[in-house]
Design a protein that fits this description.
- The protein is an alpha+beta fold and about 130 residues long.
- It has a single domain, classed as Jelly Rolls.
- Strands 1, 2, 3, 4, 5 and 6 form a six-stranded antiparallel β-sheet that branches.
- The longest helix has about 35 residues.
- The radius of gyration is 16 Å and the shape is flat.
- It starts with a strand and ends with a helix.
């Protein structure tokens, strides 16, 4: 499945994708680490730390919605940009019912992620008040 169209490199701190932006790129971490962050007010909260063989950017590819978080390089990072045409071809091979299930999963994951971010933000705010 790992049809890489392009390999990209990023230096420590470089923004790979920006929350709220649009893009259809789905990425595979080949080497290094990628921090996933979410803006809450003036703060940028760490949501996940991705490593070799982790994917990101798949939700925006599936549901064509804005990026739900930012991805930032931690150290030197090499990524593979998964071939968009290949992904679309694979999705189009599936039945309409299965595609509907994929889109529903993406929608639910987006909603669940939003709730988790709210909880992380509340926890962060409680720690700040102490």
């Amino acid at each position: 499945m790992r049809r890489i169209a392009v390999k990209e490199t990023y230096k420590d701190g470089q923004v790979i994708i920006k929350e709220g932006g649009y893009g259809e790129g789905t990425y595979l971490v080949i080497s290094g680490k990628v921090r996933i962050t979410k803006k809450v007010g003036n703060d940028s909260l760490n949501i996940a730390l991705l490593e070799k063989d982790d994917f990101f950017g798949e939700m925006s590819f599936l549901d064509r919605q804005p990026r739900s978080a930012s991805a930032i390089a931690v150290g030197d990072v090499q990524l593979g940009l998964i071939d968009k045409d290949f992904l679309e071809e694979e999705i189009n091979k599936t039945s309409e019912d299965f595609r509907h299930i994929l889109y529903t999963l993406a929608e639910r994951l987006r909603r669940t992620s939003s709730l988790v971010v709210k909880l992380i933000a509340e926890n962060h705010n409680l720690k700040q008040q102490k």
